[in-house]
Amino acid sequence: xxxxxxxxxxxxxxxxxxxxxxxxxxxxxxxxxxxxxxxxxxxxxxxxxxxxxxxxxxxxxxxxxxxxxxxxxxxxxxxxxxxxxxxxxxxxxxxxxxxxxxxxxx
Length: 106
Hints:
By secondary structure, this protein is mostly helical. Helix content is 64%, strand content 0%.
């Protein structure tokens, strides 16, 4: 989802919107499937145990990006649950992209 990679795919590989969606679905979606397997093994209420930690701080923006690009997370219910739980906490609310001073109004 990195802008540099997106620009490469669009400008140098001439990916159209459909090809970009397929690429993001394969690689980002595949990564999310791997993370789902990890949280199935290690998670409590959060990625590792019952308190939010670094793993959650990294997961939340990745899920934000995945949803932004239309990645289907229906097969990753534990990830979705964890991110919803994180997004209800004040530090995650303050850190959300829409709550930043330079955020573009929707």
